[in-house]
Task: inverse folding
């Protein structure tokens, strides 16, 4: 009798562990983890270098677009093609406003200095950027990325505005996002600036059972925050090698899947 009780306990524990191990697969399209590749500021390298590499591997990504970027408004048809292919055009505002009073922010133009803005003005920034993107891609759902990681206009948080316009937002805090513990409006990330090839495997290993977001700016040297071209290529190749266990998708798709599962 005691032996039967022990066996029953082992069966219950095994079933429990199996359920725990399988829980993320219901969230991430049958995979153990999810990864989103995100690219900020609407740069030329995103269209000319990143997009062809993504297409080669069949990956879809999120491009956080600054509407006032010359590489955006001068190449609208190229961005439209990205959206048609299934990539997300995320909102990164009209003018990339940041708090110019913080150290190292001497580059912030006076008219784009968040420390002087009201929340109402920031709301207009979000609205017009969303309207512009919707005119380009026809979509009603998208996500947001905080320029410079700033969360206030003047002295007031604009975070309460976000659910009106987005299903989630990528922050700047480092880390992974766990099922049922993730704030969709403050998603954590891995900053890929100066990423090294030797770091790729360990980073992906550390993200098992979670949702990881990689943040890129320049790829190949067209931005001070840069990821070397061969490193970007190596990351995509490693993600392709792990496709049986990692779902690679735009942020908007992963958040929609997580919301549906819960």
Result:
């Amino acid at each position: 009798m005691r032996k039967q009780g022990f066996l029953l306990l082992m069966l219950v524990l095994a079933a429990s562990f199996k359920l725990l191990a399988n829980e993320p697969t219901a969230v991430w399209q049958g995979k153990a983890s999810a990864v989103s590749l995100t690219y900020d500021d609407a740069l030329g390298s995103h269209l000319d270098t990143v997009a062809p590499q993504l297409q080669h591997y069949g990956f879809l990504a999120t491009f956080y677009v600054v509407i006032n970027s010359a590489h955006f408004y001068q190449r609208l048809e190229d961005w439209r093609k990205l959206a048609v292919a299934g990539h997300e055009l995320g909102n990164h505002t009209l003018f990339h406003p940041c708090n110019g009073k913080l150290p190292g922010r001497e580059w912030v133009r006076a008219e784009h200095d968040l420390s002087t803005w009201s929340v109402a003005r920031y709301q207009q920034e979000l609205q017009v950027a969303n309207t512009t993107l919707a005119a380009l891609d026809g979509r009603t759902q998208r996500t947001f990325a905080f320029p410079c990681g700033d969360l206030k206009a003047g002295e007031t948080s604009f975070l309460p505005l976000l659910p009106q316009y987005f299903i989630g937002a990528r922050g700047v805090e480092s880390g992974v996002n766990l099922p049922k513990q993730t704030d969709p409006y403050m998603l954590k990330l891995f900053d890929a600036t100066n990423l090294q090839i030797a770091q790729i495997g360990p980073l992906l290993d550390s993200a098992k059972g979670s949702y990881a977001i990689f943040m890129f700016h320049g790829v190949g040297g067209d931005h001070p925050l840069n990821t070397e071209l061969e490193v970007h290529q190596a990351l995509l190749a490693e993600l392709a090698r792990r496709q049986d266990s990692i779902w690679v998708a735009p942020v908007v798709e992963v958040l929609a899947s997580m919301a549906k599962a819960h």
